[in-house]
Design brief:
By secondary structure, the protein is mainly alpha-helical. Helix content is 58%, strand content 11%. It has a three-stranded antiparallel sheet. The N and C termini lie far apart (133 Å).
């Protein structure tokens, strides 16, 4: 009878010990999982053991359980590479990865980016200072983002004091906008250019410059009228004032 009681006690002690170890093992597996996910590359068992503060044998045991956990119901797996472990995609998911990798990225062009890109496209090669002078604001962020998108590039340096960098458009710009050359960009007619020039001057608070063509036309009209009056006027007649 006493032997049966002792056996039961030993079993209970063993169960209690396993129950105490189980939370530690679960926490260890989570730590290994976090390390492998964050690193993205293979991590040696001894490195993880030092970081977590456990033995290398415990790392291998917990990693083996993790490998089993990821065997089913997951698109990724944990692979063992000699004494290291790493997250990897399962082979059956490669086709899906190829499709997503070939999907072209869609970039959102804000108003600021479009304005900057338009200036570069129509005025290239153009310096950062020229772009900022036209837009009236700093363009560091816009230029950096457009270069990140591959739409503009550094096209060299201006032969001027300081040798500032000049920017131009790329082949990706041509592909994105469906044109074969910069010359294919739509051109504004003279009236549109004049309208935008006056609007820009109005926004900047600049007094519009006198229209030279209009002034010249007015002077020509005045000269013609004066000549007609001189030829038709009698000597005894008083000059006629003409309001122009």
């Amino acid at each position: 009878m006493s032997e049966m009681i002792e056996q039961e006690v030993r079993e209970m002690d063993s169960a209690v010990a396993e129950a105490a170890v189980e939370p530690d093992r679960a926490a260890l597996k989570q730590q290994i999982e976090a390390i492998l996910f964050a690193m993205g590359e293979s991590v040696e068992a001894d490195r993880m053991a030092v970081a977590i503060g456990v033995s290398e044998e415990e790392i291998h045991a917990a990693a083996a359980e993790l490998m089993e956990d990821y065997e089913n119901g997951h698109g990724i797996q944990i692979t063992k590479l000699e004494n290291a472990y790493q997250f990897a995609t399962k082979a059956e998911q490669y086709e899906t990865l190829v499709k997503i990798a070939k999907t072209p990225k869609k970039h959102v062009l804000t108003t600021a980016l479009l304005e900057t890109l338009s200036i570069v496209a129509y005025r290239q090669p153009v310096t950062r200072a020229d772009i900022e002078a036209i837009r009236g604001v700093k363009c560091d962020h816009a230029i950096s983002r457009l270069m990140e998108y591959g739409l503009i590039m550094e096209a060299g340096r201006l032969q001027a004091p300081g040798r500032p960098i000049v920017f131009g458009t790329t082949e990706e710009f041509l592909r994105s906008f469906g044109i074969q050359a910069i010359g294919d960009l739509p051109q504004m007619d003279q009236d549109q250019q004049e309208f935008f020039r006056r609007e820009a001057e109005k926004e900047a608070g600049v007094e519009p410059a006198p229209d030279e063509d209009a002034n010249q036309e007015l002077m020509d009209e005045y000269d013609d009228s004066d000549m007609l009056l001189d030829s038709d006027m009698d000597a005894s007649e008083e000059p006629v004032e003409v309001e122009v």
